[in-house]
Model the fold of this input.
Amino acid sequence: MRQTDPNRPVSRNAQRGFSMIEVLVTLLIISLALLGTAGLQAYSMRLNQGGQLRSLAVFLAADLAERMESNKAGALAGDYVVPSTTGAAFLATAGAASTACVSAGCSSAALVAFDLSQWQNAVAATLPQSSWTVAQAVSGAQTTYTITVSWVDRRTNTRNAAADANSQFGSNTAGTGEKFSYTASRIFFN
Done:
């Protein structure tokens, strides 16, 4: 009978197939890690798009406020008031943006029409399923304009929500979006 020495290394023949199992387990772990990384990347891209839309809404509201500031006579007269409007309805009825005041000077009322045409076209073209209002409140010598810009973002998974323009969830036709809005105010003194 042959005795085995406990200090003697085990031969390669006794370890057959063990390396293959190690390789398969390693491949499984790496593939799960890569799938997790891909999911994280997709979520990050959705959040990045949402942040971009918020930045655009801030920029667009500031743009209109600056246009009002440059045409203070039109702003104090209340000409910049816009009732609740949706981007789709505006584009269907308004057509192309006005260019009336680009090359020649124009009156205060014509500048208001030009500013609103340019601004509303920009909002409708930039923000998905957008809507906006521009309201005016007068208190003595102070005129306050409130600019509200809303849009639908597919940042969250709300597939089960019903499509409803007045709710926060399911605001798009598929019921998968979330409605966001940004409000800015500008005060003018007579």
